[in-house]
Write a structure and sequence with these properties.
This protein is α/β, with parallel strands linked by helices. It is built from 6 helices and 7 strands; from the N terminus they run βββαβαααβαββα. It has helices spanning 42-64, 81-93, 99-105, 109-121, 146-167, 196-199; strands at residues 2-9, 12-20, 26-33, 73-78, 125-130, 186-187, 190-191. The strands form 2 sheets. A 5-stranded mixed sheet has the order 3-2-1-4-5. The chain has a two-stranded antiparallel sheet with strand order 6-7. A hairpin with a 2-residue loop joins β6 (186-187) and β7. α1 (42-64) runs parallel beside α4. It starts with a strand and ends with a helix. The mean pLDDT is 83.
């Protein structure tokens, strides 16, 4: 089971994810979500959490070269329904001629592109599904499902990272170029990560 989370505070984004490998092994990860102000938004932070987890899995498989069964499945849980639906929509569009143009014009296209590449190259059958967030607000943590508990833990870790970055901010507003891209559009020496229709004028 695995759950991801992302958020933004004072124009700075952060992500976190928690991965239960078995009853005794739990992996946690968190970090900054790069994005240009005002393009950095909670969805971009959520996408960074998903991308970080997928990148971890890719590198883990490349390094250890395990034998992956064709039937092995992984459900990645995200508490932002719009993010889940957007990724699902782009996965369905990949075989259409309009896919590249549509994708490149939407906000956060760079992260989405990298996520789609990771999903297409993974030997795992990965599904990204929605889970209701903050379930511990009305149900004791101990009574929640394992997946809901992981989501709550990821949310707590992400919140801690946001506070840490707010107190000692770094330079997270100039995102780098992802390997899956053939080109990036820059304005004032910064990559545009928001919707191109709003950032460019013809």
């Amino acid at each position: 089971e695995v759950a991801t989370d992302g958020g933004v505070l004072y124009g700075i984004g952060a992500f976190a994810w928690v991965f239960d490998l078995d009853d005794t092994t739990r992996i946690r990860c968190s970090g900054p979500a790069d994005g240009n102000t005002p393009d950095i938004d909670p969805k971009r932070a959520e996408l960074y959490g998903i991308l970080s987890l997928l990148t971890f899995l890719r590198l883990l498989i490349e390094y250890y070269s395990p034998v992956i069964a064709d039937s092995l499945k992984l459900r990645l849980h995200c508490d932002d329904k719009n993010t889940v639906n957007e990724i699902a929509g782009f996965r369905d569009m990949q075989h259409y001629d309009s896919f590249a143009t549509t994708k490149r014009c939407c906000a956060n296209y760079d992260v989405i592109d990298e996520i789609l590449m990771c999903l297409s190259q993974s030997p795992l059958k990965i599904s990204i599904v929605y889970i209701k967030g903050h379930q511990d607000s009305d149900t004791p943590f101990e009574e929640l499902s394992t997946t809901a508990q992981l989501n709550c833990i990821a949310d707590e870790i992400c919140s801690q990272q946001l506070q840490r970055f707010a107190n000692a901010p770094g330079n997270f507003n100039n995102p780098g170029h992802f390997p899956s891209h053939q080109c990036s559009i820059l304005h004032n020496h910064r990559r545009i990560t928001g919707p191109l229709q709003k950032r460019l004028r013809t």
